[in-house]
Design brief:
By secondary structure, the chain is an all-beta fold. It is 0% helix and 48% strand.
């Protein structure tokens, strides 16, 4: 699922791609702004024409394609044979991951841009109607809903028995996963569209004013703040006691996870909307200029770059030494090292 797990840490098992990658295969699709999910030898992604694709990870051969609306930017989550993804129709879909057959749909009050996460038999997703929903994965029935106070573009993240979600008015909430009871709420910068990530006792969230916040997961009190040069749309990745976050200012920042001290910064050729991904000793960065970068965790030195010809809104997914990523011109790529 988005960020690799319910906590959105952005750290994947890999192995990674240490040498400049070659395109193993590419397939035409509609514009891709979502992050793919890879499971059981299949890669799944949604596109801006409202389709969900399932391709063989080894060859790109199409296994199935399903239309779920006019457009979707929700990134799919695949758990126990079911794929969950949101649509502009206001529906959350549960599809059989082998066939694409609809198992159930759950209707919210507006578009679902949020990417679902799944934990302990419940799928959590936000909606543009201003609610966070908890839905039973088997039946598709609502367990609870919580009003956030404004539209939700952000995707939720979970740590233990708490789910975290942001709203576009800057409200950031911690909710009990079992009951939907609000544990705390803090007001951050306007235009909150980034997704949170959780590691240890800190939840990290970037806001529309370009500030990355590190908050205590139990109280919501600030541990530290770090100011970037522009809006933060990406979730932070957390690995090796470091936090990596992209900004609309065209940079990725590496910070000490405990203190917020800047360790290094890496400048790309375009804004960074996609969340960085960490595999072993490399950070993978997708830029709106269409370039995929790999930089070292230690020091932020560029190891290689790959031009994928069009804007990259989704994060790369790195599985088994191959990178899976789609671009805004409607091409989906699998790239692996030499």
């Amino acid at each position: 699922m988005l960020g690799g797990n319910p906590a959105h840490t952005g750290e994947l098992a890999g192995p990674g791609v240490e040498s400049p990658p070659l395109v193993e295969w590419s397939v035409p699709a509609s514009a891709v702004s979502s992050t793919a999910a890879v499971s059981g030898g299949t890669v799944y992604f949604s596109t801006l024409d409202g389709s969900v694709y399932a391709l063989a990870a080894s060859s790109g051969a199409q296994r199935w394609q399903v239309s779920i609306g006019k457009t979707t930017s929700s990134s799919p989550a695949v758990v126990a044979g079911t794929l969950y993804v949101g649509s502009d129709t206001g529906d959350l879909y549960a599809l059989d991951s082998e066939t694409g057959k609809v198992r159930w749909t759950f209707t919210t009050g507006a578009q679902v841009f949020s990417s679902p996460i799944v934990a302990d038999g419940t799928v959590y997703v936000g909606s543009w109607d201003g609610f966070l929903y908890a839905i039973d994965t088997t039946t598709g029935r609502e367990r609870w809903r919580v009003a956030t106070g404004a539209e939700v573009y952000s995707s939720p993240a979970i740590s233990g028995d708490t789910v975290f979600i942001g709203a576009v008015d800057g409200g950031f909430l911690a909710i009990d996963t079992a009951t939907g009871e609000q544990r705390w709420r803090v007001e951050l910068g306007d235009g909150l569209i980034a997704s949170p990530s959780v590691s240890g006792d800190i939840v990290y969230i970037g806001d529309g004013d370009g500030v990355l916040h590190a908050l205590d997961i139990d109280t919501g009190k600030s541990r530290w703040e770090f100011q970037t040069g522009d809006l933060i749309a990406s979730a932070a990745a957390v690995a090796e006691d470091m936090v990596f976050v992209g900004s609309d200012d065209g940079s990725v920042y590496a910070l000490d996870a405990a203190t917020g001290e800047q360790l290094w910064t890496f400048a790309t050729s375009g804004a960074v909307y996609a969340s960085p991904i960490v595999v072993d000793d490399l950070v993978y960065i997708a830029s709106l200029d269409g370039t995929l970068y790999a930089v070292s965790v230690d020091g932020g030195k560029e190891q290689w770059r790959l031009d994928l010809q069009a804007s990259l809104y989704g994060s790369p997914v790195v599985v088994g030494g191959t990178i899976y990523l789609g671009n805004a011109d409607g091409a989906f790529y699998a790239d692996s090292g030499e």
